[in-house]
Amino acid sequence: MWQVTDEIETTDERELLNDDNIIIRCTGNITIFGLCNRYNTTFPPRLTAKVAPEEFTETINKINRELRKNVDFTWKALLLGCLCCCCSCGITLIPPCILNNKAKRQVKKVLDWENTRVYNRIGLNWVLRRYQCERSPMMEYVLVLEKVRQKQILSTD
Questions:
Q1: Rounded distance, CA 122 to CA 59, Å?
Q2: How far apart are the first and last CA of the chain?
Q3: CA distances (Å), 128 to each of 9, 85, 88, in order?
Q4: How far apart are CA 58 and CA 60, in angstroms?
Q5: Distance (Å, rounded) from C-alpha 141 to C-alpha 138?
Q6: CA 75 distance to own-chain centroid
Q7: Max Cα separation, the chain?
Q8: What's the whole-model pTM score?
């Protein structure tokens, strides 16, 4: 049987709501398999002394651009797959799953690029994590800006 594997880990709420983490939730109007088509571009006040607002906005705009391209096409494929589901015994629902995994991979590539370009140098790291929605059993993908734990170079023996 064909199975879609998800390489993005589910995060425990206690770990995600750490004081060091900054969570960017989705604000889009389309959410497919937990991945939405837009993230909030407002600059969080907790990042004021760490990163420039222009860098943050540029990063979120790159992610939104990738999501706009991929999620909109996935939505259309899902709609077509649902219309033809009875005739194809559900096989037409496989392409939206594959397209959704492609969209997650593209977002992870953008995040990795931005991490190496800007954020890892200043001790921050972008991660795409699955998170349970408030007042709902549904899961959604959120962007988490984590503080990288620096290894202690000078430690006593």
A1: 15
A2: 54
A3: 9, 31, 33
A4: 6
A5: 10
A6: 17
A7: 69
A8: 0.76
- Determine the residue type at 56: F
Please tell me the distance from the alpha carbon of residue 21 to that of residue 15, in angstroms, as a whole number. Answer: 9
**Token pair of 89 as six digits:** 């015994």
* pLDDT tens profile 135-157: 778 888 899 999 887 665 566 65
Structure tokens at 10: 């589910």
Tokens of 35: 């991945």
- Per-residue pLDDT tens for 37-63? 889 888 988 888 888 999 999 999 999
Q: Are 5 and 97 in contact (CB under 8 A)?
A: no
Q: Do 100 and 140 form a contact (C-beta atoms < 8 A)?
A: no
- How many Cβ atoms from other residues are within 10 Å of residue 109's Cβ? 11
Do residues 121 and 51 make contact, with C-beta atoms less than 8 angstroms apart?
no
Question: Apex CA 94: angle with CA 3 and CA 5, to 5°?
Answer: 30
Helix (H) or strand (E) holding 107, with range, is helix 94-117
| Nearest Cα residue to 40 out of 145, 122, 123 | 145
